[in-house]
Amino acid sequence: MNRMGPSVWRRFSSTSSSPVFVAKPAPSKARHHVQIPDTSFPYGYSLTGVHCGVKKNPSVLDLTVILSTSSKPASAAACFTRNAFKAAPVLVCQDVLEKSAGRAHAIVTNSGCANAVTGKQGLEDAWAMVKATDTLLPKKIKSKAGEDVHGTFVMSTGVIGQNLPIAKILSGISSLVPSSLGSDFAAWERAAKAFMTTDTFPKLRARTFSLGGQTFRMAGMDKGAGMIHPNMGPPTNPAQLHATLLGCILTDAAISPQALQSALTYAVDRSFNSISVDGEMSTNDTIVVLANGAAAGEAKEIEEHDPLFPAFREELTSFAAELAQLVVRDGEGATKFVTVSVEGAPTFTDAHRVASKISTSALVKTALYGEDANWGRILAATGSVPLSTPIDPYRVNVTFVPADGSTPLPVLVRGEPELVDEVRAKEILSEEDFEIKVDLGLGSESAQYWTCDFSYEYVRINGDYRS
Cα–Cα distance between 337 and 340 in angstroms, integer? Predict the structure, then answer.
């Protein structure tokens, strides 16, 4: 039996003419995995993905190691989940970031086990991964006081509440030699594949960009398909916006740790904190950025007051959004990729909160799956969010916007319902990509969220995730 094929469901009814609903299979996501020229990857990084035995299938990669091989320690920044049950790797990463004063030289990641809610043993295992990876590079990271400190970030993803098979992971790390790591597309692809759990394709992107007339490179990978509604921020600031999302972004530009953290916090609010598959925040969500300056020569690190900082921040934000959107496109069982744009808000926070509410509404998401232009559900979600300025219903507009550039379809104009062309609405919602645009008419601020639909396949995947 093909479990991925369409299923036929008959609604319970006392009549023999009850409608039959055909469940649509999720479209193939393979096209989102693309070949990237080797020249697009940043200088000064060596990496790989291997099988160490966390996962049962020996052909499936489950351990990623990334090393910065530049002459100086890389600047480092990170944003972490605000879930109260932070996984051991999150707690260890926060400690590494603090004690190293934002300097690092490596990232190690396992998939197949989240090492979350694992108590003292989980912390010991996470630290063991850090220490083993530190030994792969000869130079030590120094604290501000000149003491040797750890310089490796550790991440884990998979089932919560189970201990790592730490002996297998440490053996996998110690078996790595320089010749087993690389810097070409194949090496980056292996590293990205080892991040995967229920993902259907490795999420890897790279680009070149210019700052001050000089060319730099940026590459990154992330993973996630379920348990996706990140709420991440820097470890020292608990009051930001709101299977696990893990990601890393690597660049050969030179930027100070403080400026890099500022840029990442800004970028995450407009990318990874603006996606939702199922509205569930993970215990492990982590985004790490390393900037090793390998292409900067003797140039000074960019600081926040530097004229080049805004351009770098926008480049990082754009790149982070591209990576974040791949997670939504690979949402478990998803058949739609929907951009939710909220405009005319009093503040960015107001716009972001409304977009989040629409994107996580189970009623909206099931209507998206059924290709039903039930805009009343969008309004109900919008009106349930308390804003800094109360909503005036007679200023609100709602529009469905097709991705092909054809004419948008207004369904609500200044609080008055339009006579909707249901055939046209069905045409738009039957496409894989489209946009829901809500104009609140209250100000000039805006925000976007990226979300997907809820399908029968999502329920099947998560109903037997541990089996």
Answer: 10
**pLDDT 10s digits, 81-106:** 888 899 999 999 999 999 999 999 99
Could you identify the residue written with the tokens 């120094």?
A: 142
Q: What is the pLDDT of residues 164-202, one digit of tens each?
A: 999 999 999 999 988 899 999 999 999 999 999 888 899
pTM: 0.89
| Catalytic residue list | 244
Q: What span, in angstroms and rounded, lies between the C-alpha atoms of 3 and 199? A: 17
Query: Do the beta carbons of residue 115 and residue 122 sit within 8 Å?
Result: yes
Q: Which residues contact 145 (CB under 8 A, 6 or more apart)?
A: none
Instruction: For tokens 């109260």, name the residue.
Output: 84
SS3 assignment for the chain: CCCCCCEEEECCCCCCCCCEEEECCCCCCHHHCCCCCHHHCCCCEEEEEECCCCCCCCCCCCEEEEEECCCCCEEEEEEEECCCCCCHHHHHHHHHHHHCCCEECEEEEEEEECCCCCHHHHHHHHHHHHHHHHCCCCCCEECCCCCEECCEEEEEEEECCCCCCHHHHHHHHHCCCHHHCECCHHHHHHHHHCCCCCCCCCEEEEEEEEECCEEEEEEEEEECCCCCCCCEECCCCCCCCCCCCEEEEEECCCECHHHHHHHHHHHHHCCHHHEECCCCCCCCCEEEEEECCCCCCCCCCECCCCCCHHHHHHHHHHHHHHHHHHHHHCCCCCCCEEEEEEEEECCHHHHHHHHHHHHHCHHHHHHHHCCCCCHHHHHHHHHCCCCCCCCCHHHCEEEEEECCCCCCEEEEECCEECCCCHHHHHHHHCCCEEEEEEECCCCCEEEEEEECCCCHHHHHHHHCCCC
Per-residue tokens: 363: 């009623």
Q: Are the C-beta atoms of residues 451 and 409 closer than 8 Å to each other?
A: no
Q: Beta-carbon neighbour count of residue 207 at 10 Å? A: 18
> Residue 207 above 80 pLDDT?
yes
pLDDT per residue over 36-55, tens digit each? Answer: 999 999 999 999 999 999 99
Give the C-alpha distances (Å, rounded to integers) separating 325 from 228, 343, 465: 12, 20, 23
